[in-house]
Each structure stands twice: as structure tokens, then as C-alpha cells.
């Protein structure tokens, strides 16, 4: 469970960094990371 939370936090930080790099949250790389992050968050709440 802790590993999953660490992965979620790492992806969240990566998403923010990419958004800052590209200047928006709608860039395709940012959206892809966001979708992956959504999957991990859903897994977390299912397991919780």
C-alpha cells in the first residue's frame, strides 16, 4: 500500500513538472501522466 502511495506521489510531481515545462495541463504528455495517475488512484481506493 505504501509503495502505491509513493508511486502516486511521484506521478503527481512528474505531472506538475511536465505541466510547468509545457506551460499547460492539456499537453499530451501531461494528459498521459494524468491518466496513469488516475489508474493508480483508483487502485488505491479499491484496495483501501
From TrEMBL:
The organism's taxonomic lineage, starting at the top: Bacteria, Bacillati, Bacillota, Bacilli, Bacillales
Gene3D superfamilies: Helix-loop-helix DNA-binding domain
Residue ranges crossing the lipid bilayer per the database entry: none
Protein name, UniProt field: Aspartyl-phosphate phosphatase Spo0E family protein
Source superkingdom: Bacteria
Entry-linked SUPFAM superfamilies: BAS1536-like
